[in-house]
């Protein structure tokens, strides 16, 4: 579970996050929408324990990320927009390497299975990552988190630059992870993808959560209109 309570964060006197209260339950996918500079990455960086809030509390599964970041990071799978992998290793070798770094030793068939579950076609498991598309690298990134038994997934702009098929595959995978009990927060500019994949949506503007709603309560067009209204006011 993710919890932010009355969180504020400023950089050199400029407020990036103002009094943010946000919860994402186990099994839920929350989409954080907002323009450039709204505070989405700052929120994710506080959840990762890379930034400390000036005030308020940030918890992952009831553990404070500010004081126990090593512990909370073990619970988190972080998927940045561009997943960083070793290009001259295969997907399988990358997964093996990152699992070993985390102290996990899996058999080849277990590693293959994680990649397959995360949607990477069997025939490319042993191909060098340098030839992978962005979507394929993302699947390996998610497989690494999955193999590490992440409880919480944080995704920053996951759908950006993906073609519609890859983007749809990502949605299916995230819903599957949530159905297995993962807590997922994704920051995005993609109103339509967020509505399609997330149970709940938060709109951030200048570091303030100006709206929270359930995806089922709005059509894509209504969400777009609402979002634009907030951005223009
Ligand atoms: N390390 C930093 N030093 C100074 N200012 C920062 C730093 N990180 C973020 N900011 C500022 O905090 C505010 C929020 O930035 P943040 O990167 O969280 O927004 P964002 O919603 O992720 O934007 P984008 O969609 O462009 O990634 C912005 O005004 C940004 O300039």
TrEMBL record:
Keyword NADP in record: no
Molecular function in Gene Ontology: ATP binding; ATP hydrolysis activity
CDD domains registered for this protein in UniProt: ABC_DR_subfamily_A (cd03230)
Keyword field: ATP-binding, Nucleotide-binding, Transport
UniProt keyword Secreted, yes or no: no
Domain ABC transporter: 2-231
Record-linked Gene3D superfamilies: P-loop containing nucleotide triphosphate hydrolases
PROSITE patterns per UniProt: ABC_TRANSPORTER_1 (PS00211), ABC_TRANSPORTER_2 (PS50893)
Protein name: ABC transporter ATP-binding protein
High-level lineage: Bacteria, Pseudomonadati, Bacteroidota, Flavobacteriia, Flavobacteriales
């Amino acid at each position: 579970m993710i919890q932010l309570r009355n969180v504020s964060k400023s950089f050199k006197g400029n407020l990036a996050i103002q009094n943010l209260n946000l919860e994402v339950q186990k099994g839920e996918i929350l989409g954080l929408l907002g323009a450039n500079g709204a505070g989405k990455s700052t929120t994710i960086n506080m959840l990762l324990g890379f930034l400390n809030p000036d005030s308020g509390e940030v918890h992952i599964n009831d553990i404070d990320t500010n004081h126990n970041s090593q512990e909370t990071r073990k619970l988190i799978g972080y998927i940045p927009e561009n997943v960083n992998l070793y290009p001259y290793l295969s997907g399988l070798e990358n997964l093996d390497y990152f699992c070993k770094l985390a102290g996990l030793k899996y058999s080849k068939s277990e590693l293959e299975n994680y990649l397959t579950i995360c949607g990477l076609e069997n025939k490319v498991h042993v191909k060098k990552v340098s030839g992978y598309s962005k979507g394929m690298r993302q699947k390996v990134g998610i497989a690494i988190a999955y193999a590490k038994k992440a409880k919480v997934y944080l995704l920053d702009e996951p759908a950006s630059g993906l073609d519609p098929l890859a983007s749809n595959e990502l949605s299916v995978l995230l819903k599957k992870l949530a159905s297995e009990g993962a807590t997922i927060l994704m920051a995005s500019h993609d109103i339509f993808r967020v509505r399609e994949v997330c149970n709940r949506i938060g709109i951030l503007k200048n570091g303030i959560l100006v709206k929270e709603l359930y995806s089922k309560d709005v059509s894509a067009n209504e969400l777009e209109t609402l979002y634009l209204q907030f951005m223009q006011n």
